[in-house]
């Protein structure tokens, strides 16, 4: 082995004074796999969600199932599916304006500023760092200290909005049990909507900002027993936040796909009761 | 079961160095540090390696094994196949002294920048009383053995030497969180976390948590809660308004 002489003016692990090692990383495992898988997973969701949000078709099935991608349906275009709009129709019907244009941007921002997704895309898209002890390609780094990344600090506002939207999704799942002519019915679609909304609540409630608001910001838990109890519950969920982040991406796609397939007549919804 | 393993060890000092191959005997139940000691005893008596307890408690034997920051005494040889080449280098974020030994004084300097525990003025030592639930969060952080593997792996300073001035690193941001959450600490540590210790530079990518040999949830339990406290103070007008009106400390 030839000795590696110190090069001056280098950065990162090659900085003067540090051990002179030629390889930028000596990791021998497949460290590139998790960021690659994350990129693939996120891209699948982004492409699917974009296509569906702008499709403006197949969003309401069996006169009662509304997909979360179109909830609440507030565009004038929702009139095409009577019964889909529960909160009025007031946005212009335009091909570039999703029917749920009132809520989708907030859901996007909620997930974009989520502490877990930040980790996921900083690692996989920004390679900052792609994996631990693997040098990042950027010459300088300021983290979340400047615009636009300093805006990550307003995550809690999107959390508050997400709670409201989860309430709307819950409402959708509940009213889906009522068929306009058959009355109370239970179909497979109802179970799909219920599971989806339950998991959305798990994701939303396990949010780090939620944990902070519930009790994390206190210094003396002993003076606030109720908030301490809430904090312990949210903390237990919070350890699984990343899991819920991925599960809900999958359930959102599956729920929407189910509604779309039933709405387009590709499959028939199985009635269990009624 | 014994076998002869191949070890590729960085040898050198501030003037330069190289990865050098050694064939060393490996026995069942051994850790990487055992093999390095055998190497010292048989082939390389001048190999520099820092260690103390050989029990994962003193935090001295931090190094990088196959590119990952790890404790030499807690890395079992059984995680490798007999045919694997085991590469051992010093930590690559701190200046090297010789072979596997680095100068970790950056961390001592950062430790000194944090004002010490500040109890209420009216309490004398011995009069401190606190409820277990109140002090529990801080206690998790007291498990730290100061191995500085988290500091070593954090890309903010590992990949950017110039950030060493402005960034305290996960271990010391966690120290700020420990005191901020402590029921008897009355100092206000939130503004300094952001302005003096560089909390905003952390992008919560969790490498510190991944390498911590004590399994401390540094990012989830210290760094993110501190970011939320900073957000309370600087980025949340509602909380600011509430505080101004009630002037209460939770
Ligand atoms: S989570 Fe923050 S402090 Fe920890 S390694 Fe990543 S950037 Fe550094
Ligand atoms: S927090 Fe963990 S990794 Fe960091 S110095 Fe302490 S024990 Fe080591
Ligand atoms: S939603 Fe992930 S941290 Fe808030
Ligand atoms: S020798 Fe003490 S931690 Fe490894």
TrEMBL record, chain A:
Domain of life of the source: Bacteria
| Name of the protein in its database record | Membrane protein
Membrane-spanning residues: 31-51, 96-117, 157-177, 183-204, 244-267
**Species name:** Promicromonospora umidemergens
Keywords in alphabetical order, please.
Membrane, Transmembrane, Transmembrane helix
From TrEMBL, chain B:
Q: Which residues form the 2Fe-2S ferredoxin-type domain?
A: 5-92
- Co-factor(s): [3Fe-4S] cluster; [4Fe-4S] cluster; [2Fe-2S] cluster
Q: Which UniProt keywords apply?
A: 2Fe-2S, 4Fe-4S, Iron, Iron-sulfur, Metal-binding, Oxidoreductase
Extract the InterPro entries matched here: 2Fe-2S_ferredoxin-like_sf, 2Fe-2S_ferredoxin-type, 2Fe2S_fd_BS, 4Fe4S_Fe-S-bd, Beta-grasp_dom_sf, Helical_ferredxn, SDH/FRD_Iron-Sulfur, Succ_DH/fum_Rdtase_Fe-S
Which pathway does the protein contribute to? Answer: Carbohydrate metabolism; tricarboxylic acid cycle
Q: Which family does it belong to?
A: Belongs to the succinate dehydrogenase/fumarate reductase iron-sulfur protein family.
In Swiss-Prot or TrEMBL terms, this protein is called Succinate dehydrogenase/fumarate reductase iron-sulfur subunit
Q: Which organism is it from?
A: Promicromonospora umidemergens
């Amino acid at each position: 082995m030839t000795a590696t002489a110190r090069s001056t003016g280098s950065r990162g692990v090659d900085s003067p004074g540090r051990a002179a090692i030629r390889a930028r990383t000596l990791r021998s495992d497949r460290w590139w796999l998790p960021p690659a898988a994350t990129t693939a997973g996120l891209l699948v969701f982004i492409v699917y969600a974009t296509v569906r949000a702008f499709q403006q078709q197949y969003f309401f099935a069996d006169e009662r199932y509304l997909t979360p991608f179109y909830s609440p349906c507030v565009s004038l275009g929702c009139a095409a599916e009577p019964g889909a709009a529960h909160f009025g129709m007031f946005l212009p019907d335009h091909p570039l304006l999703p029917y749920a244009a009132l809520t989708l941007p907030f859901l996007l921002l909620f997930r974009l500023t989520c502490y877990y997704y930040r980790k996921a895309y900083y690692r996989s898209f920004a390679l900052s760092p792609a994996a631990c002890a693997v040098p990042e390609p950027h010459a300088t780094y300021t983290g979340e200290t400047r615009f636009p990344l300093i805006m990550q600090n307003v995550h809690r506002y999107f959390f508050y909005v997400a709670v409201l939207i989860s309430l709307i999704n819950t409402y959708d799942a509940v009213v889906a049990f009522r068929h306009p002519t058959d009355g109370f019915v239970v179909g497979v679609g109802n179970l799909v909507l219920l599971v989806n909304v339950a998991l959305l609540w798990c994701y939303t409630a396990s949010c780090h900002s939620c944990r902070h608001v519930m009790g994390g910001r206190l210094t003396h838990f002993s003076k606030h027993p109720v908030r301490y109890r809430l904090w312990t519950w949210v903390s237990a969920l919070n350890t699984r936040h990343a899991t819920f982040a991925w599960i809900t991406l999958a359930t959102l796609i599956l729920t929407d796909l189910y509604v779309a397939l039933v709405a387009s007549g590709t499959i028939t919804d199985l009635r269990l009761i009624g | 079961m014994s076998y002869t393993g191949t070890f590729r060890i960085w040898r050198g000092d501030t003037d330069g160095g190289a990865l050098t191959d050694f064939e060393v005997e490996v026995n069942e139940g051994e850790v990487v540090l055992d093999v390095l000691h055998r190497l010292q005893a048989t082939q390389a008596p001048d190999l520099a390696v820092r260690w103390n307890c050989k029990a994962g408690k003193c935090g001295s034997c931090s190094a990088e094994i196959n590119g990952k920051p790890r404790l030499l005494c807690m890395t079992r040889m059984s995680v490798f196949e007999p045919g694997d080449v085991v590469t051992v280098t010093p930590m690559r974020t701190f200046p090297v002294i010789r072979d596997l030994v680095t100068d970790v004084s950056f961390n001592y300097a950062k430790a000194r920048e944090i004002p010490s525990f500040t109890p209420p003025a009216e309490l004398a030592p011995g009069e401190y009383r606190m409820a277990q639930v109140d002090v529990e969060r801080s206690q998790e952080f007291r498990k730290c053995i100061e191995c500085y593997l988290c500091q070593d792996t954090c890309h903010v300073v590992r990949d950017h030497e110039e950030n060493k001035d402005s960034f305290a690193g996960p271990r010391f941001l966690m120290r700020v969180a420990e005191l901020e959450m402590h029921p008897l600490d009355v100092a206000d540590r939130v503004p300094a976390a952001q302005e003096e210790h560089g909390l905003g530079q952390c992008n919560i990518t969790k490498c510190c948590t991944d390498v911590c040999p004590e399994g401390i949830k540094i990012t989830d339990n210290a760094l993110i809660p501190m970011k939320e406290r900073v957000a309370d103070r600087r980025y949340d007008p509602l909380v600011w308004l509430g505080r101004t009106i009630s002037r209460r400390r939770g």
